Amino acid sequence: MNVDKQPPVPARRRYSPWAMGAIVAALLALLLQGALVPLNLAAAVMALIGLRQIRREPSRYIGRAFCWLAIVLVLILAVLTAMLEQTAPEPPAQHRVPDEAHRVSDEERRIPEAEQRLPAEEQLAPEEAVGDR
Q1: Rounded to an integer, what distance in angstroms lies between the CA atom of residue 41 and that of residue 81?
Q2: Which of 6, 54, 74, 133: CA 20 to 30 A from 39?
């Protein structure tokens, strides 16, 4: 038997799984408007791992553009989130520490003895309290 030996066909280059994961994570972070910082970091890390994988095995993997696109998306989201992030609202006046100019002294804060209210039982006249016993 005469069999022609053909050289093996090289495997088709395919997209790096890390590159695909990075672009999916970056698009998901874009949909969530950059609210999940760990997702943004994960997309950037996956993109860097994907670039490393493509550099080590260029005959097997492609997807360098996806990696760079994911990194750019994450950076843009980080910058926009930092620019648009609202500052903490000012607490209500009752929870704030007063300024020195508006501070009330302890003497002004005390209620005069004539205006102090007694508990309900002691507000009764003495003759009514004695009669109930």
Answers
A1: 14
A2: 54
